[in-house]
Design goal:
By secondary structure, this protein is of the alpha+beta class. The chain has one domain: 6-pyruvoyl tetrahydropterin synthase/QueD (Tetrahydropterin Synthase, Chain A, 2-Layer Sandwich), CATH 3.30.479. The chain contains 2 helices and 11 strands. The strands form 3 sheets. Strands 1, 2, 3, 9, 10 and 11 form a 6-stranded antiparallel β-sheet that branches. 30% of the residues are buried. It binds zinc ion. The site of zinc ion (ZN) has 5 residues, from β3.
């Protein structure tokens, strides 16, 4: 049972069409625009000795799909940006960039995400860490890694890999637990 297996789910319905803009170094800020994003998840681990699968595909879809649906057809806004301030007033949300109002949206049209910038990299980390908590909470001790890929457009994607922590009754070198490096296959735009 030393072999590592991987399962991947990357379905057409794991996609979202959303608006965003990112901030660059200094005082550059993109114009608002949209992408047809697609999310894929790959989980690494040993096969369950009884079922002979790493994890039921249905479980991955059940966790990921609501996260995707929640931000579909929304304006994606970062709540942890050092350059943007989001001000809610009634049902309106004003985006202030470096002290000056830049956009105003109906609050219900926005998805506020705990990231510093809505790059594909940060969206991948957001999906991965949220999904990581869900999977660890379900006690899948035989799973070791979770990788999320966010594709902004065909052939242009970023990914984030999280190392999964087994529950306390499994022996593990704890120095390997937690997040690992981000790997990006292209820049965003
Ligand atoms: Zn973009």
């Amino acid at each position: 049972m030393n072999a590592n297996f991987q399962v991947t789910v990357s379905k057409d319905y794991l996609s979202f069409s959303s608006a965003h803009f990112i901030t660059f170094r200094g005082h550059k800020c993109e114009s608002l625009h949209g992408h047809n994003y697609r999310v894929g998840v790959t989980v690494t681990g040993q096969v369950d000795p009884e079922c002979q699968f790493v994890v039921d595909f249905a479980v991955l879809k059940e966790i990921l799909r609501p996260m995707v649906d929640a931000i579909d057809h929304k304006v994606l806004l970062p709540t942890a940006s050092p350059k943007l301030t989001l001000e809610e007033s009634g049902d309106q949300l004003t985006v202030i960039y470096l002290g000056a109002p830049r956009y105003q949206f109906p609050r219900s049209d926005c998805a506020l995400l705990p990231v510093t910038n809505t790059t594909a990299e940060m969206l991948a980390e957001y999906f991965a860490t949220t999904m990581q908590a869900e999977i660890e909470g379900r006690g899948f001790d035989h799973l070791t890694e979770l990788e999320i890929e966010v594709e902004e457009s065909p052939g242009q994607a970023a990914s984030y890999r999280a190392v999964l922590s087994p529950s306390v009754n499994v022996t593990l070198d704890t120095t390997t637990a937690g997040r690992t490096a981000i790997s990006s296959t292209s820049t965003t735009g």
